[in-house]
Structure formats: C-alpha cells, structure tokens
Amino acid sequence: MQRLEVYWEDAIRPLHHIYGHLDNFDTWLANTITRIGRAYAQRPTELHQLDEKRLLQPDWFQQSNMLGYVAYTDRFAGNLNGVAEKIPYLNELGVTYLHLMPLLQPRPGANDGGYAVMDYREVDARLGSMNDLANLATRLRHNNISLCIDLVCNHTAKEHQWAQKARAGDPDYQNYYLMFPDRTLPDAYEENLREIFPDFKPGNFTYYEDLDKWVWTTFNEYQWDLNYQNPAIFAEMLGIMLYLANQGVEVLRLDAVAFLWKRMGTNCENQPEAHLILQAFRALCRLAAPALLLKAEAIVSPPDLVPYLGRGVAANKECHIAYHNVLMVMLWSCLAERKAVLATKALQNMPAIPSGTSWVTYVRCHDDIGWAITEEDAAQVGLDGFAHRAFLSDFYTGRFEGTFAAGTTFQFNPRTNDRRVNGSLASLAGLETAVTNTNWSEVELAIRRILLLHNLVFAFGGIPLIYMGDEIGLLNDHSYMEKLELAEDSRWIHRPFMDWEKAAKRHNPDSITGRIYAGLCQLVQVRKRTELLHAETAVHPIWASNDHILALLRDNPRGRLLILANVTEAHQTITRHRLHELGFSGLLINRLTEQPIDMWQDLTLEPYQAVWLQQAS
Ligand code: GLC
Questions:
Q1: Dihedral, CA atoms, 160, 164, 166, 167, nearest 10 degrees?
Q2: Active-site residue among 51, 250, 269, 297?
C-alpha cells in the first residue's frame, strides 16, 4: 500500500502521456493494478524477503564487488540443471550476476539465437522447465549470484499465439502488431528507417499473402514488432515481467528497447514514448517486485544512450542499468588506432548518469560490433567519422595491412557502406593470428590486450561483464557454418561452446589460458576490494598529455583513483608534472599491485600496461 502511494506518480505520469487519451483508460488502469496486486500476492515469501533486502540496500548493484558473467545455457553447461552444477566455477571467478542468453520458448528452426520467442511463460524445452529455472534462480541466489535473463519485449516470433490469432484474422490480435494493407505507409516510414539485418532481410516490412498485409519486422522476417500504441501490449508485457520476477529472475535484459515506439518521419528509434514505456514498467514493477532490476539493451549512439537511465524528471526512474556500448567501441578504437584521443573526447561528451543507476560495461558480447561513433565526436579530434569507422572495420576484419585482428564482416550495407564486425575477444585482440604464426612476442602482446580491455571495463565503474570463454581466451569458432539454421549468421563465430578441457588447465600459469585466467582473477580481486569503484559517481576521462594513454579519473567521496592505460605496444610516459597537475603527488600506490610508485621520476607504462593510482593515506 505504501509503495502504491510512493510510486503512483511515477507510474501515472508516463501512462497518462501514452494512453491517457484512450476512452477506456480508467478501466484499463484499474485492471492493470489488479493484475499487479495478483502478482504481489503470488510472489514467494523468499522473494518478498529479497525485496525488503534490496529496498534496504538500493545500491547493491552499484558496488565494486559486482561481477557479471554471460553465457548460453546449452553452450556453457548443456541445460539449466547443468548450470547449477557450474556454480563452483562461477564462484571461483567471483561472479555475482549471471546473464543466461535467451532461454524462453523460441520458434522452431532459425530463431535469432533465441530472440524470436513464441511463449514467454515456458522455458525452451531443450534447456529445462520453468520449474528448473526457478530452482536455478534460488540456487544461484543462495550463492550470491543474481540471475538475469532476456525479455524480448519489442517483438515476438510469428509463431507466438498472438501472431497466430492475428494471422487467423482476429482484429484484436492484429492490433497487437503493426500491419498495413498496402505499401503506402511502409514506404513513407522506410524513408527514415535503418536496416538492421540488410543481408538477412532488406527493409523493415514483410508481406504475407494469407493476411494480404505488410507486417512491421525490424529484425528478421519471423520477428514481428509489437504495437505499443495498444495498451493491451503494455499490460501483457508487464504481466510477463512480473511472472518472470516471481520465478526468481532478478534482472531483466530488455531487448531492443530503442525500437519500442514508431513515429512517422523519424527513424523510429529512441522515441520519447519508448522512454515513457520503460518508466511505466519500472514504476509498476516496483509495486509488486521491487527487487527486480531493468537493464536497457539500447545499442545506439552516445547522445541517445544515456536517457535510458533516466533524464530530467525521470532521473533514477527509468532503467537501473544499461549497456555501455560506447565504451566498448572506444576501447577497440583505441587499440586499433594506438591512440586514446577519440575515446577521451567521446566519453567526455557523454552526460553523467543518475546517481542510482549504473553502466554495464563489457568488451565483447554475443552481438557484432557496430561502430557507434558520431561525426561530431570524430570531428572534434580531427577525424572523419565515416573514414574512421571504415578503418576500424578494415582493421578488425584483417583488411588493414599489419593488423593483429582476425574478425569477419557482418551485414555490409552497400547503401550506407556500413560494415559491422564479428569475432571473439581473443581473436580480435590478436591471439588467433599470433598463435597461427607461432609468434610468441605477438602472443604476449595479445594476452596483454585481452587483460587491458578487461582492466578498463573493470575500472570504469558499473557492472563489468565477462563473456563466456573470454576468461580462457577462446578463439573464433567456425563450427556454426555446418549448421543450416546458423550458417548465414556469422555472429555465431563468437558464440562458442565452453571448452572445459581448456578450462581445466586454467590454473597452469605457464599456459596461455592460465595467463589470461590468472590475470583476470587478479583484476576481479582488486576490483572487489577497491570500493571507490562504486558506480555512484561519474568517471572523468582526462587528457594524460600523452595521446597514447587513456586516463580515467574517479573522484568519489570514498577516495580518488587515477586509471592510466597504455593502449600501444610501445612504452609510454606520463610526466611527473602532469600527475601533479591532476592532484597526484607524494606517495602513490598502484592498487593493482599494491606497489608504491616512485614520484621522483616520470611514470613509464609498459606495453598495454594499466595502473590504478591512489594517493597513499
Ligand atoms: C538484440 C540482440 C540481438 C538480436 C536483436 C533482435 O539486439 O542482442 O542478438 O538479434 O536484439 O532481437
């Protein structure tokens, strides 16, 4: 009751904006509240207790002990019960948050890695049952690991029962999707739309003969975009969110949220209503399941990204966490260019995020890398945006002379010349090429790159993610080409099966695997004890007075930390004078090693070395 009082305004404000003009708004609202009441009543006691705990410690996910791990259930451990058996492995790494890739019932055949869901209340039978999921969530929680799963809220599979009913001619269900009798409106929309998978399916609409209609399909033909102008969709999704929260899911990764609302004359991404929908979801979920965190998956350009964590009146009232795709892109850009200037500028240009939210930082994920670099950011450091993006694509797909990277091109769009990149972290960082050429000094550099990238996502603040297999340096996996339903999507090159034989050698310090694993574990330990990496305050990228060093200053009430990273294979120096200017003088400690730094000399960083400097107290 108290929650209703406190969060009511937050819920009603966005809902009024989006649906207030509809005739039956009041009845719809009353029904929605009843539904929330029911979800609250059905919530298991242990989860009510979790709600209390989270309300008492609302910054739990911002703390420096957070560490995420991302894996496909089948590729990591066979099925959900298998994941439970791997808890000791996750505990050894220090994981506190596990994102299992899409696991709700997908359509048969090609399903975009599970992002084409036909039943949100059933688990993919190959992985287990809903009961197994609930049991796994409990076991993980008892081991201090929060379970995150995907909620594909922008579209359903065309085999979902809503789509089936729509297809059978039911007008109520046709209104769940965006359908057009002819090309007039689709053509008008297309003028401003991007193509997400131009190789798989050009355009954003698909014609179905039996329906004699064009259906909005942003992604693949079999993924039908939902119509959020219809409040029934909002209510259905909210019901699903609370249902999943009641199974013990603690974090929902809201897929493709940038696309939730369409508006003629725009690119139909990042529309104000998409934000209002997320704000309403947040406020209403808080009533029944306040422990639930919402994570935005909006892989958009820097100015469009920050609002998913809430701006203005919505600060702290939209998603709790969001992927920092810009940081990811900038780190890869630094390594290719051997310069940190663009990264420094682009990250400086991003506004601060609300104090109660956090980034999710990562180096690699299951998707391709799209070069989210604006013309403005590039121009400010004297680069041409288009040329730089083309350079990065060339560099990471092996087309650039002397590159260390071994990735592949994804979704070349001849209309825009846009090219995205696939490849595993280790392969993109040079390990594959070095091992193939048995070039040991290159192997050394690749290991350092892998650790440097992780170092920076660990230091940035927020929840750092380790993508399954990166902790043991798994290379590109070409086996997907032998599977008919996967072969055309080269993102599977970086979605390997866990190599448990290799993982068994992780404690051997002389192997490449052991080097990477030990380096990562050391980073995890340091991060966990470095409390000032708490996400509550912004990190400031600053100029180190050396273009080849990325410098991040964390000025937190808990203390000041200066992160310096050499993004090149040469030695790089930052002067004593510059450190002094930044307020670092006297006795300094490198928190990564707990070694003092000699401040009577300039500070020289080894190839790809990072230091986390703090004034000794
Ligand atoms: C997200 C997923 C991606 C998927 C798309 C459509 O971007 O990360 O893998 O293809 O949404 O659901």
A1: 130
A2: 297
Residue 255 known to be catalytic: yes
Angle at 584 between CA 578 and CA 586, to 5 degrees: 115
CA angle (194 as vertex; 254, 389 as ends), nearest 5:
95
pLDDT in tens, 479-504: 999 999 899 999 999 999 999 999 99
Task: Indicate the residue among 296, 322, 348 that finishes a domain.
Answer: 322
Task: For 414-538, list the strands marked E by DSSP.
Answer: 418-422, 463-467
Lowest average pLDDT, out of 329-338, 413-422, 441-450, goes to 413-422
pLDDT tens digits along 236-294 = 999 999 999 999 999 999 999 999 999 999 999 999 999 999 999 999 999 999 999 99
Distance of CA 592 to the CA centre of its chain: 26
The reply to whether ligand 1 has any atom less than 6 angstroms from the CB of 102 is: no
Tell me the two tokens of residue 262: 């369409």
pLDDT(202) > 90: no
Q: Whose C-alpha lies nearest to ligand 1, atom 12?
A: 115
580 Cβ contact list (under 8 Å, min separation 6): none
Could you give the CA distance from residue 256 to residue 378 in angstroms, rounded to a whole number? 26
CATH number at residue 565: 2.60.40.1180
Partners of 146 in the β-ladder = 97
Most informative mutation of 252, 255, 366 for ligand 1 (most atoms within 8 A of CB):
255
What mean pLDDT comes out for the span 584-610?
93
Which atom of ligand 1 lies at the shortest distance from residue 113's CA? 9
- The Cβ of residue 142 has, within 10 Å, a number of other Cβ atoms equal to 10
- Of 168, 157, 276, residue with least CA distance to 224: 157
Please indicate whether residue 255, judged by its CB atom, sits closer than 6 Å to ligand 1. Answer: yes
pTM here is 0.97
Residue nearest to atom 3 of ligand 1 (CA): 367
Residue 289's pLDDT is: 98
Helix residue ranges, H only, 437-511:
440-459, 500-503
Q: Which of 70, 72, 107, 112 to mutate to test the pocket of ligand 1 (most atoms within 8 A of CB)?
A: 112
How remote is the CA of residue 600 from the centroid of ligand 1, in Å?
51
Tokens representing 274 are 């998409």
Residue 219 Cβ < 6 Å to ligand 1: yes
390 and 379 within one domain: yes
Residue 120: which pLDDT band, with cuts at 50, 70 and 90?
A: very high
Amino acid at site 68: G
Q: Give the three-class secondary structure for 590.
A: strand
Judge if 92 and 22 occupy the same domain.
yes
- List phi, psi (to 5°) of 215: -110, 140
Query: Residue 205: which H helix or E strand, with range?
Result: strand 205-208
Domain that holds residue 435: 324-533
Residues 374 and 522 reside in one and the same domain: yes
Nearest to 552 by CA among 523, 586, 582: 582
Element (H, E) at 442: helix 440-459
